[in-house]
Amino acid sequence: MLVVLGLVGAGAVWFLVYAPFGPSSETFVDIAPGTGTAGIAEQMQQAGIIRNKYAFEVLKEWRGGSLKAGEYRFDHPAPLLEVYARLHKGDVYTKTVVIPEGFNIFDIAQAVASAGLGSSADFLAAERQHTELIARWSPGATSLEGYLFPDTYKFSRHATAVQMLTAMVKRFGQEAALLGLQGGDVARTVTMASLIEKEVAIDAERPQVASVFENRLAAGMPLQTDPTVIYASLLNGTWTGVIHQSELHADSAYNTYVHEGLPPGPICSPGVAAIKAALHPATTDYLYFVAGADGSTRFARTLDEHSANVTAYRAGNRE
């Protein structure tokens, strides 16, 4: 009888711990911070994730460790050990937002919307409203443009726009500290870096592009950089994918064909290489640059040299 009872008991334990159980379709369980083991076990049983809450509590006593709060996604029957391991590890459900270097606020808002984390309109409204997040670097900013650092982010599906913006700005702050970016020149540096980011893709050429911009500023020449014209049209909601002659003459503060100096703020989120170039531009006497047919950049000291480079660029495109 004792042997039989032992076998029955062992079988029951095996069944409760190792036999798969749970939903066959997507089910979410959101465990609030501070919830105890009994509360977690109750939630899991109520949601149909585990067979028996008491077995879960016993397993917790046996395996030890802590259980992490957060939202969990279950979509297939699983052994109790697997469920416990996921909660112990903190394998919470998140959605991924990838922000490459050079994304502007409109690109980022679309990436957030595509990840199913809210509408792009709500994200844009929040980034314009919560400029206090960057007040230490740019107290007069009207947007968080330039300070939403390029990275791969993972957010809870319940994350608010403000929470996402705060995380992105925090990453900028971390990187800024590593680069020694501080003081009153941060806003200027980020703005310059955003132009460099948009103008050239080869990291080795970024310091030279930075030198062209600095040389033109020192000479009182307008920067005449197309990405600022595009950004002005994006702000106006008139960008069609092609720069029209009228846009080159548009009276926007971001139009560097019309206005001398830097635009009033960044036009995208620059990466580390662009920020470094803005901090440490090369020493050159270049005043012009244009992309070559092979994707590299050709630099020039005089307008004649630049015109020859532009002619070669157009010829390369035709070929």
For the residues shown, what is the average pLDDT? 90
Shape: elongated
Count, helices: 13
Main beta-sheet annotation = 2 strands, antiparallel
Tell me which oligomeric state these chains represent: single chain
What does this structure look like?
This protein is mainly alpha-helical and 319 residues long. Helix content is 48%, strand content 9%. The chain is built from 13 helices and six strands. The strands form three sheets. The chain has a two-stranded antiparallel sheet with strand order 1-2. It has a two-stranded antiparallel ribbon with strand order 3-4. A hairpin with a 5-residue loop joins strand 5 and strand 6. Helix 5 packs across helix 6, helix 8 packs across helix 12 and helix 9 packs across helix 12.
Secondary-structure map with pairings?
Layout: H1 2-18, E1 27-31, H2 37-46, H3 53-63, E2 70-74, H4 80-89, E3 95-99, H5 105-114, H6 120-129, E4 151-155, H7 161-179, H8 186-199, H9 206-218, H10 226-236, H11 245-248, H12 272-279, E5 288-291, E6 297-300, H13 303-318
